[in-house]
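S.,

Sequence below, as promised.
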Amino acid sequence: MAGADSANPTVEQRRRYDLLLAGLDLLDQAIAVFDATPRLVIWNKAMLRLLDFPESMMRVGTPFEDFVRFNATRGDYGEGDSEEQVIERMAAARSFQPHYTERTRPNGTVLAIRGVPIPNLGFVTLWTDITDQRRYANVIREQNVVLEARVRARTHELENANARLAHAKGEIDEIAEALRRSEARLRLIIDSIPALVAYVDRDEVYQFVNRGYAEWFDIGKEEIVGKTIAEVFGDEHYAQISPHLGVAKRGERVSYEYARKIKNNRMVYARSVVVPEVGSSGEVLGFFVLSIDITEQKASQAALVQAQKMEAVGQLTGGLSHDFNNLLSIIIGNLCALKERLPEHDGACEFVNPALQAAQRGAELIKRLLTFSRRQTLEPSAVEVGALVRNMTQLLALSLTESVHIRTRLPDAPLHAFVDPHQLENALLNLALNARDAMPTGGDLTIAVSERRITPSVAALVELPAGDYVQIDVTDTGTGIDADALARVFEPFFTTKQFGRGSGLGLSMVYGFVRQSGGNIRVRSTPGDGTTVTFVLPRAAAPRPDVPGPAPVVDRDELPKGPVLLVEDEHEVRRIIRMELAALGYPVLEASNGPEAAALLDNVPEIAILITDTVMPGGIGGRDLAIRARTTRPDLPVLLITGYANEAALAGIAELDVPVLRKPFGRLELEAALRSLKSHKELPSQ
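The prediction came back faster than expected:
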């Protein structure tokens, strides 16, 4: 490409100039160069396609103001006086300042517009169609609320090149000088393009790279030119792309994706299109390489897939929770009744107590599954994380083997996170048990707590809003996790343990809890070198100290009095609740469905309290029954009970302002719920 080695330097420079212009026409992005006057100098075909300008305007010398006025007249800038819009934009253009903006055209296309000044020459404007990127970002936001991420626009396949030289006049020396200036200008333009551009000859030796290409490899442009692709990529990565280069050498255009690891061990991804340059006799002279960084897009796609998996497990868990909670209500209620009837030192307690504890653990597991799937409401508060970890150390020591040594690194000053303390304890316990299983011969388990400031520049990378967070690192010295398993650790039901030794839900539950709490989590691991689980939670201000007061006195005289109408369609569940109410001293009337309960309410004025399930057969549910009761008896206390976890089953309940007791529950929970009942005067509109 060097002019000194050619018999005809002007022809060779014209060819290189032609090649550079051809590269611009290959881009899906629209590009235009305006001189200092400002008037149109260079453009590519995508400018016509994306901006719908008449072909008659696309000529050298067209004033920039003509394009602005054309856009204003057809409404591209929105409502308003078109002349004022023209004046405003021309003033901005004449300032020759770098700028970036986004505009939605009347046809719905979203364009990203970037202007870059060319010192003492004019400016270049780049239009990119980011409609798909914006639509994709909206899909991500809809499926995972805290998951906010900006998605890079997907590159389109480059179209076949049609070069067009700007006409040149005058003597050969003037043409050669003009071509040299144009080449320098085009190099400046290509360096300003937010993409990776290179030209490689038939021997795979770089002849040209732009600034973006050099920055991608963290090598100077001058160091790349003259080297082979294998030397720049390295043997491992060259093996990935070599088959695609073979296709390009046969004269075929090819696109592919590849990944490489950068200095901080972070993987980055690129999508490339290789377009061969074919000579007049059909031989391949070299090829253009045009690439775009798709690392953010890959991360967003992975987040979307994870959110969809979590949603699928959540739907399964929410659907089964009603049946499981009813079954557990029957089991726990009967076991509690049996335990009360046994003498204190009866040998049967040896069998009853483990069964009761197992059933209660089952109820707790359902709650944890619902929390993990975001169908159980968390109860966050300002929690001093260091104190919580310190208090958990003894519990963790009992849960781990003696060969596992627990170490903590806690801050000197208290750090508070806005989080559900019980779920945080469960998360730490899950991680500790995973660490124990990864260290069968013993080792160190370290829990570190620190403060973390997430700046706006890194917020998108960690998929969190900028702000202050509390960071927790749980590190073990165990066997580690290989790369394939590491990519799946948050998948529900995925486990690296032997069959029967793990459910595959531990890390999934921790992931669900952390994301629902407004944080994020990641796992770093190397086989044979241990694992570190890092998660951050929103930081909270320290709560005001509680002023100690007299301990509350539990007095059953505070309970509402009178007969209870109990409405529950499950016979065994109804029997258990009736038994608990009787133990609290209540006479109980029973109904198995809404119509039966409505008849009793109409005909038994002595009913003093209504306790009803939310979803029942017969066409009248708990909400309808409560409204019906309030219509004739506004002061009647109402308590709703439910085994459902999803919000659809509780639709319309909040507006009633009545307490909801979730199954399974015991006598103490039932007594507390009854004590909270109070009369309601206002009836919501039906």
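The radius of gyration is 35 Å.

Coffee later?
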